[in-house]
């Protein structure tokens, strides 16, 4: 997939994933990678920015497999932002789909 397309939808996917439940960074990388191919170097800066913008709160939780994990919890502001992004994405993708169908008709 084109890198610019990935960047355009990555934030929305991360927000929607964490709306389901709190997640830690590597868990998010694994989950998001099922939808689009990403790596830790892409996700962690995004998580930092979204946290700085108050869309996430973070907390540490003990892990049986090593050091404590930093979990990301979507704030109310983050939930509103996710809904806004989803609404924008649905409108945008609908317009692009209509355009493609018109182009295919010739």
Termini gap: 25 Å
CATH fold-level label: Arc Repressor Mutant, subunit A
Per CATH, the architecture is Orthogonal Bundle
Classification by helices and strands: alpha+beta
* CATH homologous superfamily title: Winged helix-like DNA-binding domain superfamily/Winged helix DNA-binding domain
Order of helices and strands: HEHHEEH
Low-confidence stretches: none
Radius of gyration: 16 Å
Q: What is the percent of helical residues?
A: 55-70%
Please count the helical segments: 4
Domain Transcription regulator PadR N-terminal: 19-83
Protein name: PadR family transcriptional regulator
Organism: Massilicoli timonensis
Overview in brief:
The protein has helices at residues 3-20, 25-33, 40-52, 76-105; strands at residues 23-24, 56-63, 66-74. By secondary structure, the chain is α+β, with helices and mostly antiparallel strands. Strand 2 and strand 3 (66-74) form a beta hairpin.
Keywords, please?
single chain, 106 residues, alpha+beta, Arc Repressor Mutant, subunit A, 18% strand
Explained architecture:
It holds the Pfam family PadR. Residues 19-83 form the Transcription regulator PadR N-terminal domain. The protein starts with a helix and ends with a helix. It has helices spanning 3-20, 25-33, 40-52, 76-105, and strands at 23-24, 56-63, 66-74. The radius of gyration is 16 Å and the shape is elongated. Strands 1-3-2 form a three-stranded antiparallel β-sheet. The mean pLDDT is 93. Strand 2 and strand 3 (66-74) form a beta hairpin. By secondary structure, it is α+β, with helices and mostly antiparallel strands. The protein is built from four helices and three strands. The protein has one domain: Arc Repressor Mutant, subunit A (Orthogonal Bundle), CATH 1.10.10.
């Amino acid at each position: 997939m084109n890198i610019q397309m990935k960047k355009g939808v990555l934030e929305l996917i991360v927000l929607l994933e964490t709306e389901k439940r709190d997640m830690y960074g590597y868990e998010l990388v694994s989950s998001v990678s099922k939808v689009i191919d990403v790596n830790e170097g892409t996700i962690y800066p995004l998580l930092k920015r979204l946290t700085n913008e108050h869309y996430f709160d973070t907390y540490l939780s003990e892990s049986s497999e090593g050091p404590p994990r930093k979990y990301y919890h979507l704030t109310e502001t983050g939930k509103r932002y996710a809904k806004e992004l989803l609404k924008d994405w649905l409108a945008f993708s609908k317009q692009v789909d209509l355009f493609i169908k018109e182009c295919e008709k010739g």
